[in-house]
Design brief:
The protein has helices spanning about 15-20, 45-60, 65-80, and strands at about 30-35, 40-45. By secondary structure, the chain is α+β, with helices and mostly antiparallel strands. It has two domains: about 1-45, Pemi-like Protein 1, Chain: D, CATH 2.10.260.10; about 50-80, no CATH class.
Amino acid sequence: MPFTKVDDKGRVVLPSELRSKLDISPGDEFIVDELGPDALVLKKVDLRAMIEDIIEKAKNVDLDQLEAEIEEEANRLARQKYKVLD
């Protein structure tokens, strides 16, 4: 298992064997999360593809239906909060 260090700017160099094996290139983006004490997880993500997918899905949203559902939920929560019977 190869070792690496964190530099004074918080950067970690990934060993070349891992970069090759996982097809990691300069500019690739990652999600970083704490797995537990002394353990991190790096997940390679394609942010451009994620955003394009979200935009494409948003094109199919019926805004009138969404507005009606939001209003219905707001009314339900208000009735629940103020204990209004139907």
